[in-house]
Amino acid sequence: MNVPCVRVPREAGEATRRALADSNLLDHDHDIVVDAGVLYIPVAAPESVPDDYDVVDYDVPERESRQLPEDSLGYEPSYERLGDIVIIDEDDAERARTIADALVESDIRAETVVNRASKIQGELRVRDWDVLVGDDTETVHREYGFEFLLDIATVYFSPRLATERHRVVEQVQDGEHVFDMFAGVGPFVIPCAARGADVVGVDLNEAAVDYLRQNAERNKVVDRVTAIHGDVRDVAADYTDWADRIVMNLPHSADDFLDTAVAVAGDDCVIHLYDIQHEDDPFGPGLAAVRAAAEPEYDVEVLTERTVRSYAPHEDNVCLDVRLTRRE
């Protein structure tokens, strides 16, 4: 029967499905359908789907009964998928174990189930995990047609940012110089390189840089990727005036590195600055910091002010896209 669906290319399917699920917009009574490389994802509230998605009516079958975790639990647990790892976030150890058992008994694919055991910690941005099922914290995450090998025990990675990463990557032009100051395993670096950019990715976490190099090979972009282990403030001297685009995804402290970003920026450079700010003024502090670092050498133009997601009560994870144009 015809039902409202979000229509996306197949390679964008998982990231789109996850974004819709995070917003409680999925229609769980109908199956997702693939037709000629296009995915049709049924949605329960089409009027609430963001305008940047393509919503159409499409003939999809009703979903056959399958075992879900809530069938045995009596409630719908919160979890997210990262490759074949399922991640839960429960303070109560007994409740976490019960949810893990229900996931294993369900039709959800879960080779490993982990519970968050700490917040993100230290300069390397890693966290502790309680492994409840399985024993392998390394996995391959697929996003918009790219594969990322990673180990959640040694690197930071958020699948929830897939849509935001894709938004930035879609702006990249062939031949650009892109500098990712906090690159991790390469979720910005790899797709930017695939669009024809020369990309430098820097990270303080040696394990992340090792995975970045492996992911460049895995995705066949190794000739356009330079992966550097180190403090970006030390690396920047080798790339003065080099970048056409800079990614600064270190939300709590990226503004501390704006002087370094300005040193790397070329005559005309776009900076994607990620920040955590109070909802009353989510973009003002970041813009003030950019102006303080860049002016009067550069003119500063705001291109986009985007709320990526809610981070905490009254705090938002935001992205400020600004263009720096060197004054003559």
TrEMBL record:
Q: Which UniProt keywords apply?
A: Cytoplasm, Methyltransferase, S-adenosyl-L-methionine, Transferase, tRNA processing
An individual GO BP term: tRNA N1-guanine methylation
InterPro entries in the record? MeTrfase_TRM5/TYW2 (IPR030382), SAM-dependent_MTases_sf (IPR029063), TRM5-TYW2-like_MTfase (IPR056743), TRM5/TYW2-like_N (IPR056744), Trm5a/b_N (IPR040601)
Its name, as the record gives it, is tRNA (Guanine37-N1)-methyltransferase
Which Pfam families does the UniProt record give?
Answer: TRM5-TYW2_MTfase, Trm5_N, TYW2_N_2
Superkingdom classification of source: Archaea
Q: Which ranges carry the SAM-dependent methyltransferase TRM5/TYW2-type domain?
A: 79-326
User: Does Thylakoid show up as a keyword for this record?
Assistant: no
Q: Name one GO cellular component term.
A: cytoplasm
Q: Name one GO molecular function term.
A: tRNA methyltransferase activity
